[in-house]
Amino acid sequence: MTLPTYDEVIAKWDPVLGLEVHVELNTNSKMFCSCATEFGAEPNTQTCPVCLALPGALPVVNEKAIESTILIGLALNCKIAPYSRFARKNYFYPDMPKNFQISQYDEPICFDGYVDVEIDTEDGPKQFRIEIERVHMEEDTGKSLHVGGATGRIHGANYSLLDYNRAGIPLVEIVTKIVPGTGKYAPEVAKAYVAELRDILRGLKVSDVKMEQGSLRCDANVSLKPIGSDVLGTRSETKNVNSLRSVERAIRGEMIRHAELLNDGKKVKQETRHFQEDTGLTRSGRSKEQAEDYRYFPDPDLVPVTPAAEWIEELSATLPERPSLRRKRIKEEWNVPDKEMQAMINADVLDIVEATVLLGADPTKARTWWLGEISRIANDQNVAIADLAITPADVAELVALVAAGELTDKLARQVVEGVIAGEGKPSEVVAKRGIKVVNDDGALMAAIEKVCAEQAETAEKVRGGHLPAAGALIGAVMKETKGQADAARVRELLLGHLGAQ
Amino acid sequence: MIQQTAAQMADALAKGETTSVELTQAHLDRIAAVDGQVKAFLHVDSEGALAQAKDVDARRKSGEKLSPIAGVPLALKDVLAQKGVPTTAGSKILQGWRPPYDSTVVSKLKDAGVVIMGKTNMDEFAMGSSTENSGYGPTFNPWDLTRTPGGSSGGSAAAVSAFEAPLAVGSDTGGSIRQPAALTGIVGVRPTYGAVSRFGLIAYSSSLDQAGPFGRTVLDTALLHEVMAGHDPKDATSINAPLPAVVAAAKSGDVKGMKIGVIKQLQGEGYQKGVQRRFDESLQVLAGLGAEIIEVDCPSFEYALAAYYLIAPSECSSNLARFDAMRYGLRTGDVDGASAEAVMSATRDAGFGREVKRRIILGTYALSSGYYDAYYGSAQKIRTLIIQDYAKAFTQADVLVSPTAPTTAYKIGEKVDDPMAMYLGDVATIPVNLAGICGMSLPAGLADEDNLPVGFQIMAPAMQDQRLYQAGAALEAALLSKWGAPILSKAPALGGK
């Protein structure tokens, strides 16, 4: 039995998607208490009677989390409920201190929205509308670390350690309606949707949206139905999908797995599956004998959420530009080629380049610096561009210095190094390092004469009209002047000197 | 000294005639003398109490402005978290737990300089009406040590009735302050839901729980009420509004022109004859003071008990899920190889008593998918109807009244195997909790057939708690002049026998 190829799958089957995205909000305090939310703190240092569920402790809703959720709802074109409630989802698990999770059940705060995404196809760009069923608030659980045993999973572990720092971190869950009609593009559409969500959330500044740290997590529901059929197939829900690439891989993998079963006349089991980064496959989660009964009921410790219409309007007015529209605008305004635009998006430098341009830099120059030299240094040092000690203001200043002829590109690279090394603003680095363009033709001529004497043979070639050979001489002159000369001027003087013009 | 009212003690402290240390020591001595019989306390914090007393004496000496009841000692129901002091809610599952934080009520008491002498016995997690469901054995009624003091705040009520403390804090989810007050011949008030913070009150049923004061007089109760109540940002259901002036109302005590509604459904059949007689007499007294007595109809009250025994167990089944042996309290079954699930299960089996398990099972069932609408959903609808009944009745009357409990104190063990009979004892108190309004019980005399105290219940709309005190103080004064001496003077002597 061999797996069907992807082309074989889509020739026969039509995928239907459903995506649930969990977003950790970046509020300073937890959803229902005043504990800090910083990532990576020592275990159990960010806890209190409320998030440890000590007897008698009570939750109080974080207003900022409500504001963030409403912003998300508005950005996703949702309706905002004038009245919604928190419910308790009851089940026992050691990393959940109360043994119930406070969530929203049948009364979510935002509902009925949509997001448009665009993907590139062989027929050009294609748009898909992903409809949003609901956006609701809940709290995160703590984390279990299972020690001993081979797999790091609870099964076979000797004991488990519990860290409640994450317990009570505000989570927003964004649930799509079923997404039909994506056909062979299903994996790409899903990836584009999650990417678009990530960009929207980042633009709203409500979450760190770091998939690798779990602040944005995606559960992918996939089912297949025969092409042309109206009857939905049985779905599987894949959890643990922690990168954009994984979203695409997980869905593609599940489509193939489902098709294999269905082609064989077998049934797809409705179950939770876990994506495995290394193999790109999913494995079955703990199979439940029967559906869990969460005994949802309205949380009697909390009061209904009733945002005033004026407040929602105010928030609506603060919404930033939609990321997809912004990209389109920037591409047009700056006249950026497709490939370069994609490079900027991939390198995540759009914000920083735009900030540089807003400080007066030429868009192309600004883009080239951030995407070129600065990206290279970030790569070498293995840090994020944003974490380097260079700001849009520095780059804007740099671009201005080059434009004014006070720096050559080569010298400017040295200045960038200096700024990143913490030597100050570009002008300060220039002053401290004594970097300046050699404008003195006399000094340049001396260097040219010296080089032509040393490399007489090459000089002779140039004199004979073989201009490409001039490069070596120019390089040598630049070296002689410690790179502080303007290469164009050197060339001009050199060629004049050798009578080659 | 311990026979005085809290108001008198406060006055003596203010005048420098006594000190809080002296007063506290006198009560600790009384506890040492009689609590072996009454068993009102689960934990007596003599050291902590005397330290607090010393502190408040020093503050008074330095001329600091103190609350009206600063220096007066108090007994605290074990359902409220007090930092560093054992807090069990009457359950074995919390044996030995010392909270790392103070409940808001405790913070307020400490700020007011009230001396907390110890934690009082209660039905486990406040589930019960006789204190017999305590994991640590029952409390005995000071009026007759073979009888229950009522519950669930039986320890607090008995402590005040036995002069072990002039004031006590209880909590009332279905009558747990008013019923024991009635059965021990003292005053107890369940404030409006949301008036007293629930932060640090170990939850039984979140939408019904409310802490409140016990005293031997209406004024004493008001003095404690005023200290306990107030908005708390740590409790989302706390009401952010000015407090009703309960002390002023208790001091004025006037019912002239007041319309008093007798609830048709809460009297007559099912009520002990002596209870009904004292109730009727009290109505005559009130009428004699110029009140207008009318009858009001609350037809939905018939279903109150059924609704309560769905809502409270439902909420408790979720509230008590946190007792899982993972972070605090009892842990059993933690043998090599046992899963977390097995340890949780063994601990809950060993730590919870029968009544608690009964209610958890009942609530789990009522919330289950497929049963939710029929049980929890219907109960919420009844709750709405009861609120509407009250709303209508309060358009006709300023306050509503009934006997607090259908009977006087019953024998220990008498109803312990018949939960339904025990539940019926709360029939008159439960509607107040379901509607979130306020209620008071005060002594109406002794029943002829058993010479045991009878409670008279007054109910008022939400945030109109002052009406309870205004009517209660008037009735109390009239009855006192009729009897010639406080009702507790008729109780048998304890200790030293």
Describe what is shown at a glance.
The complex is a heterodimer of chains A (501) and B (497). Chain A is built from 16 helices and 14 strands. Chain A has 501 residues and is of the alpha+beta class.
Report on this model:
The complex is a heterodimer of chains A (501) and B (497). Chain A is of the alpha+beta class. Chain A contains 16 helices and 14 strands. Chain A folds into 3 domains: 6-311, no CATH class; 323-433, no CATH class; 441-497, Arc Repressor Mutant, subunit A (Orthogonal Bundle), CATH 1.10.10. Helices cover 39% and strands 19% of the residues of chain A. In chain A, helix 13 packs across helix 14 and helix 13 (441-454) packs across helix 15 (470-480). Chain B is α/β, with parallel strands linked by helices and 497 residues long. Chain B has 16 helices and 11 strands. In chain B, strand 7 (259-263), helix 9 and strand 8 (292-296) form a beta-alpha-beta unit. The chains are: A alpha+beta (501), B alpha/beta (497). At the A-B interface, loops of A face helix 10 and helix 11 of B.
From the structure provided, what is the oligomeric state, counting identical versus distinct chains? heterodimer
The strand order across the widest sheet of chain A is 2-5-6-9-1-10-11-12-13
Largest sheet of chain B: 11 strands, mixed
The proportion of residues forming helix of chain B, as a percent range, comes to 25-40%
Strand content of chain B: 5-15%
Helix segment tally of chain A: 16
Helix and strand succession of chain A?
Answer: HEHEEEEEEEEHEEHEEEHHHHHHHHHHHH
Biggest sheet overview of chain A: 9 strands, mixed
Please state roughly what percent of the residues of chain A sit in beta strands, choosing from under 5%, 5-15%, 15-25%, 25-35%, 35-45% or over 45%.
15-25%
Outline of chain A = elongated
- Low-confidence runs of at least 5 consecutive residues of chain B: none
